[in-house]
Design brief:
Two copies of one chain form a homodimer.
Chain A: H1 5-24, E1 28-29, H2 32-37, E2 52-55, H3 59-72, E3 76-79, E4 96-99, E5 106-110, E6 115-118, H4 124-131, E7 136-137, H5 148-153, H6 161-164, H7 167-170, E8 171-178, E9 183-185, H8 199-203, E10 211-219, E11 221-222, E12 226-233, H9 237-249, E13 254-260, H10 262-272, E14 281-288, H11 290-305, E15 313-315, H12 318-337, E16 343-350, H13 356-369, E17 376-379, E18 384-391, H14 396-415, H15 434-438, H16 441-452
Helix pairs in contact in A: 1-3, 9-11, 10-12, 13-14
Chain lengths: ~475, ~475
Amino acid sequence: MVTTARQYIAAQADQVILELSEYFGSHLQTKRAIREQFSRDESAHTPVLPDAVVAVASTEEVCRVVTACSHWQVPVVAYGTGTALEGQAIAVAGGLTLDMSAMNRVLEVHQDDLDAVVQPRVTRRQLNEYLKDSGLFFSVDPGADASLGGMAATRASGTNTVRYGSMRENVLSMEVVLADGRVIRTSRRARKSAAGYDLTHLFVGSEGTLGIITELTLRLFGQPEAISAAVCPFAEVEGAVRTAIETIQSGIPVARIELVDDVSMQAINRYSGTDYVEQPTLFLEFHGSAKSVREQAQMVQVIAADHGGSDFQWALKPEDRHRLWRARHDMAYAGKALLPQSRIWATDVCVPISRLAECIVETRRDIQREKLLAPMVGHVGDGNFHLVLLVDHQDPKQVNKAQDLHERMVMRALALGGTCTGEHGVGLGKKDFLQAEHGEALSVMYSIKQALDPQNIMNPGKMLPDRQ
Amino acid sequence: MVTTARQYIAAQADQVILELSEYFGSHLQTKRAIREQFSRDESAHTPVLPDAVVAVASTEEVCRVVTACSHWQVPVVAYGTGTALEGQAIAVAGGLTLDMSAMNRVLEVHQDDLDAVVQPRVTRRQLNEYLKDSGLFFSVDPGADASLGGMAATRASGTNTVRYGSMRENVLSMEVVLADGRVIRTSRRARKSAAGYDLTHLFVGSEGTLGIITELTLRLFGQPEAISAAVCPFAEVEGAVRTAIETIQSGIPVARIELVDDVSMQAINRYSGTDYVEQPTLFLEFHGSAKSVREQAQMVQVIAADHGGSDFQWALKPEDRHRLWRARHDMAYAGKALLPQSRIWATDVCVPISRLAECIVETRRDIQREKLLAPMVGHVGDGNFHLVLLVDHQDPKQVNKAQDLHERMVMRALALGGTCTGEHGVGLGKKDFLQAEHGEALSVMYSIKQALDPQNIMNPGKMLPDRQ
């Protein structure tokens, strides 16, 4: 007898499984071990088992699954690399999870058009490996080797967004399977268009709640002729942020401009046995001609000196560049090592850059007051920063403190004209802030969801807060 | 007695006028002379009189009008500078036209954030005039001194999109009045966000069919330290396009790269008494440091020489730059002068740049075959080109020929992976191509329209083709 909503969905899912099992055979799995594998992502959100995992290999197969799920009103979630940070691929309501692994081919590279057409499970490193000898590269770099479909679905960005844009700017077109099994292409391959509603941007960042991405056309850039890197510690966060602001105002096309705070620099020294100055530090990278990357670094050095950046080091050769940036790359491990028994809770907010120093300083003060451990790194060019909360989940008091701090940080960012997430997405972790962030606009989001997924089968329970 | 749909709307509009007249007084006009003034734009589309014109001065006043129109199911259209090229602001179904003239204030400039908050009737030149001493500028330049609200509504772009992006990339957030009078803000002022559906991009390019834009937050750039300009004729269109492709592939951050075809160069010589080589010609502009703009021009010169670009001239001083670019600026007048009794029919398509030469050459051949006059200019960096059809509207045969040619050009662009309009928008002139361009995706556009404007009062008859 069906007694709960979860059991109801499981029973409906059984119908879907029955309907699909002949076609999919061993590609449709209900074994617990497989379901467990697809129950979690990199976040601390509680894993949930889907009712089945189906490995799809084509748009037609995605259609087949979605059509069956639509018929039986069963939730469907696409799962890429599982590197989401807000639980976006966790099947919180059960239903079917799509294992996209087999949709991992680069389909076309248009050298002259600077674009590539890929299947959604191609990862960003895989694409760049493929492009290695073409003179082109794909720019968006969120850290993890995420799938490009997942990156589009969560509107990912990363360290070089300040120069090349986020997924918002780098997805030219997508093929999407809608909730009723229809297949659409969101746009033509042309670089720009003024022909109709911008469906590409509607699906970028929709976190699987409007449809399943089955193909992407991505913007590429020419590999820079030369790269230079620089590192510069500052007495205060304000000086580092001011340097970022003036660098951008001056039109210096900085490729990366990352802030690592003093707590993080301490963590790195402790972890790597290095002796960096334990102050807020900017890590920079410049792309361009050999002449230009030299000039760019020199210009930033002058700006930094005006704002308390005293020990500006820069390098052109790959090995020297890597040495300079090593600390930034070690951050993930170094942070975790501060409190080995902790789980990492990575979160981010983004504010107008003029309010960034204020937001960081106040958040840092709050962390100290609460005696929490939380290294901080920022994509300062975008006004975006990450907090890596190290929380001992055995300690409920600490967990509570961390939750309260997190909420205060988000509300602080909103009060400063910012957003509750710059790049991690909403998923499960930021749902409760969407009303505060968007107000009446949230009702428009509900209308769109209702129009395109009236049965609420596409990744239900994510992004949009549950209606009261 | 009401006998036609048009009369029905007029009768309903009378109710709205009655309801609003006390509040708006002389700001609500039904005089024929005023209605005529707001009945047309710069296109050749047939003017249509709205039932009334109401001058609004605030978001609250826009709400008031839209709420009344919603109550009586009366169409409402926002009118900015009337510089649209596809009839976007023509009240084809009658109803009320909003005269936005009074909403023309620059509200805030955030120097450090590189953004400005403006009312929708601020024009792009007005904003740049306002910014003159700030070291910042607003980049999007469609030629006409259009209102920024209108530019956002039509997803305008222009000559320097290749470097700075179109309205798609340069609108950070908007305030919009919806069909039922609700007011939303599409996004926060932060540079990026992963929090919810991208409503900003949904409203950019929606041509007033989903809501009325009442405020915009726009991205600004630092004024470049130096500008250089260059001009180079090519034996063939292919060489010019190849030069554009390799320039972009090389990562040279060219600010403008315009193609003027041989017919246009002839027209310019005839009009201005100049003696330019009558060949396809590239007009370029470079922004950057003094060193960098020199280097950029030199690099392009080398590329151009590889592709039959023989007489590369470049200049740094403002007066020399203006002399070099003069021909490009004279195009509008020179074209018209070719056939003084003609009306100008300006249209555009956009294709992947790899197919641009082919699309241009075949279209040019088609024009010659039909013995039509149609100078052509292209934003080649974007794969976008414009045809300026000079048509004697007294000659029905010529009008027919031009219409057929226009249709063939659009279908050719679509067949090459392109779009029916890169920057002019759909309005009335491109509606019939949306099905061919978008296929099933068009049904998603209808769903969105239905969800946000169920009564179809927001600029009805535009963009989306009439359902059969």
